[in-house]
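Here is one such tokenized protein:
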Amino acid sequence: MSQNEKRRQKALLKKKRKDKERKRTISHSSGFDSFTYKMNLIKKAKAFPIYECLINDNWKASGLAHILLSRRQPNNELIIGVFLVDIYCLGLKNTFCNANITLEDYQNLKIKMFQESSPIACHSGLANRIIYGAIEYAKKMGFEPQKDFSLSQFVLDETSDMDLSFDIEFGKDGKPLYISGPDDNTHYIIKKLIKNVGEGNFDYLVKL
């Protein structure tokens, strides 16, 4: 191979490396911009009208509320907030939110979320009362809401005095009732209840 050809091949390889690096940079930047855009949308979610607010029909009997609140963006896609609330003891166990959700993806989410119960319409004030009331109740026993609530709370309406008009019993028969879940650290939770509530002042059901 001549010296000229070697130089040409070297220059081509160098150009390919630069093009590849540029594409990676653009891809990373685009992903970051998309993430930032979604975060900004979620933080402004209250400005968008509620599309649906749903809850599982057996939330009172089970003590576990699955709440899905969605808001319609100007482009007809949705901002969603999902909240798993233990009204008997632990408060807000899990939550997440997202933006730019298509109606098709939203319908698929509803199917997965309400596999074991039927979704029914829920007033946004009732959703607030369940979520914020359960968080307040759980904090008395030392349990904090799942960390992603710092973002998903923006999907909810502002709390108001009207929310207090929804009469909800937190706890069961006047005291906390802990029902273990598949991802719980049961030993830690019971130990915390004994410390903060006192042995004999709460009930529990541990699933084996």
About this structure: The longest strand covers residues 91-101. The longest helix spans residues 3-43.
